[in-house]
Amino acid sequence: MREMIRVALTTVVVSGAVATASPAHATPGHGVTTREVWHWTVDDTAYTLREITIGPGGATGWHHHPGLVFATIRSGTLTHVLADCEINRYRTGDSLMEDPDDPRSHTGENRGSTPLVMDVVYATPAGKPLSTDAPAADC
Question: pTM of this prediction?
Answer without folding.
Answer: 0.79
